[in-house]
Amino acid sequence: MAVDNTTGISLWNDPTLSVTVRVDALIDAMTVQEKIAQLYGVWVGASDQGGEVAPHQHDMEEAVDLDALLPDGLGQLTRPFGTVPVDPALGALSLARTQSRIAATNRFGIPALAHDECLAGFAAWGATAYPVPLSWGATFDPDTVRRMAAAIGRDMRAVGVHQGLAPVLDVVRDARWGRVEETIGEDPYLVGTIGTAYVQGLESAGIVATLKHFAGYSASRAGRNLAPASVGPRERADVLLPPFEMAIREGGARSVMNAYTDTDGMPSAADEDLLTGLLRDTWGFDGTVVADYFAIAFLKTLHGIAADWAGAAGTALRAGIDVELPNVKTYGAPLAEAVADGRVPEALVDRALRRTLTQKALLGLLDPDWSPVPAALDGVDLDDPAALRGRIDLDGPENRALARTIAEEAVVLLSNDGTLPLERPRRIALLGPNADEPVAVLGCYSFPQHIGVRHPGTPLGIELPTLRDTLAAEFPDTEITVARGTGIDDGDLSGIREATRVAREADIALVVLGDRAGLFGRGTTGEGCDVDSLVLPGAQQQLLDALLDLETPVVTVLLAGRPYAVGRAVEESAAIVQSFFPGEEGTHAIAGVLSGRTHPSGRLPVSVPRRPGSQPATYLGARLAHVSEVSTIDPTPAFAFGHGLSYTRFDWTDLTVDVQEAPTDSEFTLAFTVRNTGERSGTEVVQLYLHDPVASVVQPVQRLVGYTRVDLEPGEARRLRVTVPADLASFTGRDGRRVVEPGELEVRLAASSADPRLTARVTLTGAERHVDHTRRLHATIGQEPVAGA
């Protein structure tokens, strides 16, 4: 082995040397088998007794023999905390003991990199369940999302995890897709800015953020999971790719996960132009590309572009996938055999290996003082596992406070005839399948819904007050009567009569509808839970309609993973409150909005359809995608992207624009005043939409290019100054290059995509200008108080 004669340690363990020198020395010393061992993971579950992890037996994989694998080393440990319920302290001990064994068993003392899910919080038993990403989008608040991600990252790092499989940067193209709850919304700028903030927070805690799914997963035909994606190169470039571009450039994400889908016949896992040409050669990404679970094997079994496992391995490796997850399959013996007989060049193995070892070096896993003991177990007696139980709290007061803040900011008031906020009602009828259901606030990647459901009898690990619980606390002097009415999706009509009886006797009827999150058919939303229509699941619409027939005012509350058409309720419900799986503090947030304790400030990250069968439809459509006289289908939503009401009123006035003309390589500035003219404090979410009346290729009618939250007390006003770079008008032109064209532009200053308040018109002048991934991505928005307001 290469040893530095001065220090007496191996070159790859010497932190005084550059990472490049250390990694090159290590690669030179490795056999092909040892190299390949760093390119795959093993799916494990931590021991609740503190012993070593146990390989997880998945129905898509054969059993793994760790004793046979570990002498060559191991690249990753898959989901040690997110596989079985385990006390966090004992899980950390289990992981530490396993890491000790891994490092001691291979020649170079290299531990594994441990990854876990963190889509809506660290997916571990007892960890905080934050709102799902669709709720992050509803906040229009990157700063708070950044703080949440940093908290998630600190918890993960403290117990020995290195990589988190989040955020999802897929842009919603069809709300029937089951994974809508995992996305941030239907607009690439909103997805990009909120997703980038999440990446920044996670990375600030030392956790490798993993962008997924690269690229096109959400554009599948008919909203079906893992279906082909029907998108052209322009839609891909202008809608699907920008969030990834932003998160790499501004977020510093260190990992990317491929999408399962194929686009025009090319699976992402085999797409060298995407994973190497665009991602690395153009954008300059230098991190690792990890396979979505089983995606490399899918090249043979689902896509049919590989004849055997070796062919699948060679294709993925050549395309640019560095690490096979979740288990060793194609990158094990099949890849070794393909390298031995010359079908796969060893240079491709070395290329992927260099990236994975560089990441391990930067994480400190090659340093001589590396310890398997994570920060949360420092100074603790590890020989007494029983004493460790309950020592680590992954759901402390600071986490819960942050979870509540995000949940409160994400509640969207869709409609209100003045019934809300409720003024001390004497009798509330609390109705519907989600009125008294603890897990109604959780998405499918929360630990209780993802893993806990497979372990009946195991406690949830976190407090999940139902809406019944929080309303009782919010209205202590009110008589609250509960009637379920019907189930989420059982179609049972037998309880509707009782629900209507209870409603008749009440001052107000709160009907709580929506989803049950689950995986692959276990839920009405979630991975593999796609729908053919956006009608409410089961008999929920029948329950809602029966209540609307009464004289009692009905407030409709939705706890859901996707937007649903709610029929007559759009016009007839006294109010509609939308919440997208708001997490463990979600019912407190909803109760606060209902009572007026907190003011609603959420805005829709996805349009709410008027009709259940008008998909696919998003606000981000060209003229032909909107209502017309030549089609009987009207895709106009009931509530548009960006919509959300408040308990106060805001006036927008005094628009000024500094120039009427600006060169295509410059910027222009506009200013306006927003004033709270109501009697309550509130938050206005100012949104900037760009409309390009004439372009060389078809453009969306408008697209979001900026936004900001403005908090105002009654009577208070702020002057907003917005600087808009001409780069924001760029799009993919006829020749496939991104272009800024001269011509007139409209900047619509709006409360939603359907509610423009002020419009600035500026003409771009000069030559057509091509831009690339280094273009300016944001408008600059400043706020200053208005004197005398």
Automatic annotation (TrEMBL):
InterPro entries: Cellulose_deg_GH3, Fn3-like, GH, Glyco_hydro_3_C, Glyco_hydro_3_C_sf, Glyco_hydro_3_N, Glyco_hydro_3_N_sf, Ig-like_fold. One of its GO terms (biological process) is carbohydrate metabolic process. One of its GO terms (molecular function) is hydrolase activity, hydrolyzing O-glycosyl compounds. Residues 684-753 form the Fibronectin type III-like domain. Keywords: Hydrolase. Belongs to the glycosyl hydrolase 3 family. This is Beta-xylosidase. It comes from Streptomyces lincolnensis.
